[in-house]
Amino acid sequence: MALPDLYANTPVELVSAQSLATFPINTFLENLAIAPNGDIFVTSHEAGEIFKLDTHHNLTQYAKLDGKVTGIVITGSDNLLVNGWTAEGVPLIATLAQGTVQSLQTVPEGAFLNGITAIAPDLYLMADSYRGAIWLFELATKAVKVWLEHPLLARSDSDDPFPAANGLKRFGNDLYVSNTQQKLLLRIPLNNNLAPQEPKIFVSDTNIDDFAFDAHGNLYGATHVYNSVLRIKPDGQTTIIAQSEQGVTGCTAVAFHGTDLYVVNNGGMFLPLPGGVEPAQIVRLEVGITGAPHLEATP
């Protein structure tokens, strides 16, 4: 597969990197969430597994679902919210506590549930990469409904397997969403009731999977098949801060803890490097800036 050379003229300022854990070749690490104490929870998409990497770098299987698992967020002490598919291919949303599934519900009207983010305490948004929509999930009641459906969230070609709406994060009074298939970063203003306004294109011609913000509003994005991590300033100026040499081949998601950015990848499963698929990894990048604060769930 020939990719358009989106980043040929993008400046490169590589940061220090450290590999914290490796996984067998053909492990598709999809997303991660980091607890306040630094424990890292990672979804292994195709295996339906959630792994925990503690602060001493001990790696254990935390939970396993019968199906596939995609997005993940921390909702409280040792509590997680995830999405994915059942073994029959029906989209699902599940809550977990201490490694045990507490609730599981299917979303038959969904297509490809992906990134998750809090928009307010106990309210979570989930990207639907193939429906071209964002779902709203209320943690207390487990109610789920479409929050926004829009052409900018959808694929321009329904035969293209690349996901459209993918990662999403709230920063200030805006929700940012990556549309990987259309190579867009979107900004969706929120009104006082947190209802979506008309989506606007923030950055075009960029291949972002999941992403995170620092406290200054800089966006850090995983480029998946472009094997790099980008820093995008509020004015759209883009810099490459990590490449395959830093262990981010096939990077799918990033998350902050302190002043470090943590990256998960799949080793290039979708588009291998000339040397073949590499082991999947969890990598720490020393960016030196604190991540944006998280919206916490209510106790």
Explain what this protein looks like in three dimensions.
The chain is mainly beta. The chain has one domain: TolB, C-terminal domain (Neuraminidase), CATH 2.120.10.30. It has no helices and 24 strands. Strands 1-24-23-22 form a four-stranded antiparallel beta sheet, with no helix packed on it. A four-stranded antiparallel beta sheet has the order 2-3-4-5, with no helix packed on it. A four-stranded antiparallel beta sheet has the order 6-7-8-9, with no helix packed on it. The mean pLDDT is 97.
Question: Can you tag this structure with a few keywords?
Answer:
Neuraminidase; 299 residues; four-stranded antiparallel beta sheet; mainly beta; globular
Strand content: over 45%
Number of helical segments? 0
User: What's the β-strand tally?
Assistant: 24
Fraction of residues in helices? under 10%
Describe the main β-sheet briefly.
4 strands, antiparallel
Question: What would you give as the CATH superfamily?
Answer: TolB, C-terminal domain
Count of structural domains = 1
What is the class in the CATH system? Mainly Beta
Short description:
Helix content is 0%, strand content 50%. With 299 residues, the protein is mainly beta.
List the helices and strands and how they pair.
Blueprint: E1 17-25, E2 29-34, E3 40-44, E4 49-53, E5 59-64, E6 67-76, E7 79-86, E8 91-97, E9 100-106, E10 113-120, E11 123-128, E12 133-138, E13 144-149, E14 165-171, E15 174-179, E16 184-189, E17 200-204, E18 211-213, E19 219-222, E20 229-232, E21 238-242, E22 251-257, E23 260-265, E24 279-286
Antiparallel strand pairs: 1-24, 2-3, 3-4, 4-5, 6-7, 7-8, 8-9, 10-11, 11-12, 12-13, 14-15, 15-16, 16-17, 18-19, 19-20, 20-21, 22-23, 23-24
